[in-house]
Amino acid sequence: MGSVNSSQDNNYCTVLPYFKIHAGKVGAFKEISQRLVKKTNHEPSCLCYSFSFNEDEAHCQEIYADSAAFLYHLDHVSELLGELFAVAEMTRLEIHAPASIIEELKPALVDFEPKFFTSETGFRR
Asked: Which InterPro entries match (predicted)?
């Protein structure tokens, strides 16, 4: 059974980017997203990584064990992200994590202008 925890013992970070896919590029976006999933599947501290679609909009749900895992991911897939940004615009980026993790991530994400949400209470299983 899961345990109730506070931000002090929860290092998870959830990353939620939203995309508007350029006209005629949905197929290309989906192909790149499949390659991203395949490559990310080998990252042991990535706990969840999936894409959802609504016509020409896309969303990726990402959960990492800690900030180091997410920073590793950014470096690991940087080339594929470049391809993705050639066929879509990121319209929103949310980061959900404890305050200490947010502070660790801010320098690496400044160019993306994310919305930071501070995790304060919850549970994990």
From this structure: Dimeric_a/b-barrel
Which residues share a beta bridge with 27?
none
Find the domain containing 32 and state its range: 12-124
CB within 8 Å of 42: residues ≥ 6 apart = none
pLDDT (tens digit per residue) in 5-31: 444 468 899 999 999 999 999 999 999
Token representation of residue 65: 């064990």
Total domain count, the chain: 1
- In this predicted model, what pLDDT tens digit does every residue of 104-122 receive, in sequence order? 999 999 999 999 999 988 8
CA-to-CA distance for 16 and 47, rounded, in angstroms? 14
Closest CA to 81 of 41, 29, 25: 29
- Produce one character per residue of 13-37: b if its CB has 16 or more CB atoms within 10 Å, e if not: bbbbbbbebeeeebebbeebbeebe
Position 3 in a domain: no
Work out the end-to-end distance of the chain between its first and last CA atoms, rounded to an integer number of angstroms: 6
Read off the CATH number of the domain in which 41 is found: 3.30.70.100
Q: Which residue matches tokens 């940087």?
A: 78
